[in-house]
Design brief:
Blueprint lengths: L16 H10 L3 H9 L12 H10 L4 E6 L2 H15 L6 E2 L4 H6 L2 H15 L3 E6 L1 H6 L3 H11 L10 E2 L8 H17 L12 E4 L6 H14 L3 E4 L23 H6 L5 E5 L5 H8 L5 E5 L4 H16 L5 H21 L3 E5 L2 H13 L3 E7 L4 H12 L8 E4 L3 H10 L4 E4 L4 H7 L3 E3 L17 H23 L10
Helix pairs in contact: 2-17, 3-9, 6-8, 9-12, 13-15, 13-19, 14-19, 15-16, 17-18
The structure holds iron/sulfur cluster.
The site of iron/sulfur cluster has 7 residues, from α4.
Length: 489
Amino acid sequence: MANNLGLAVKPVTETPEEEVNRVAAWINTEEYKEKNFARTSLVINPAHACQPLGAELAAHGFEGTLPFVHGSQGCTSYFRSTFNRHFREPAPAVSSSMTEDGAVFGGQNNLHEALENAYTIYKPKMMAVFTSCMPEIIGDDLTAFIKNARNKGCVPQDYPLPYANTPSFNGCHIHGYDAMLLSILQTLTEGKQVEGRCTGKLNLIAGFDANTGNYREYKRFLKEFGIPYTFLADISDTFDSPLDGHYKIYPGGTKLDEAADSINGKATIALGSYSTAKTFTWLKDTYSGKHVQMPVPFGIAKTDAFLMKISELFGKPVPESLKAERGRAVDLMTDAHQYIHGKKFAVYGDPDYLLGYVSFLLEMGAVPYHIMCSKGTKKLEKEIQALLDASMYGKEGKIYINKDLWHLRSLVVTDPVDAIIGDTHGKFAARDANIPLFRFGFPIFDRVNLHRSPLIGYQGVINMLSTICNKFIDITDETCDERHFEMMR
Ligand code: SF4
């Protein structure tokens, strides 16, 4: 056995080739699938990330804001590198670098020193503090620590320092996003509500969404309507900034004064009821104007509902340009339906995206067959089931809540589908099942530019449909015999 340099490598274990082949074949069987689904105390390759990672994404959505992880450096590196690899952009964030002494004596000293250093060196307009598991396990009191930090002068008394508890042993990235966004809005809007004032603006919250193209698409919709807006937690410039030879530590984000004034808005729409649950519960009792929580607008029906809601809230008709765009998307659906109609899909991801995938596939007459969520609830299961029940293409769909990608692998090798929709982590299952993986979710590490390609709205329908159908056509070309290798497809 030799490595890449041709040097001899001593194998760690000596497993006969027949044994390797026997096990490789066995893990593709129904017998193994049963054992795999019987496991209770082990999770293998879950399709979700840590709570604080979601908190960091929310923090990056605000002007001049430095995400601050109270916890260990290893966790912080994981969040930053995940964003680096997905967006191919820097993701500056700092850490209180807790180590063994912090774990024994508490992390207050680390937090104070780090706050002082970060404030002095990086000059952020706001620091958004959130926790990794270590301070949560030892019970660090963030509220008291932050109060003490102000009293000690680590940061000025009136400096915006929102903070959120984001333990990863309870919840995942969407919950961390929600908790951090809630704290940021609570901090910035405190004392800013003015009786009788209305900004005339729409506040839009996208929920946990790591597709910068989606943010630009939402903004384009609102520009077409001519509606002023405040995008709460806008990461589009943070993670898609131009390369001009100058490094900017804070290239984008929602202006802090605009976010503060959002409490006086005319209306607020929170997209994605699973990643904005707490934030919406709070703001509907606090913010002026009307409040609506809606699904992420994947597919035609959900996009229609989104645009009609904006039209209703602001008393403006849906612009002709968007109606024409809808017509083009429907035209493409008609042109392309034969390449996707009846195809079976395994889909997995965050609850809000998952609901979108299922709606989109059903609209195309495709079959969402294995539907998996690693951090889901009974409510999500019911919502997905309702979508399946409402369509003749949903009859075969089966929902797997709180399962992981090793379960999904068993499903796709024993009960085959034509493709998987998910994120980069699904590539192993897709390869084992010899089917394509469509990378619409987060994170995407192994393809370029996909996070810039919108999935929401009518353009999202066009993008997803073109990607899927062209891949199926490629497969036909690559696998057909000579006689059927046609010019026309
Ligand atoms: S699970 Fe906890 S300890 Fe592990 S990387 Fe996530 S936050 Fe850090």
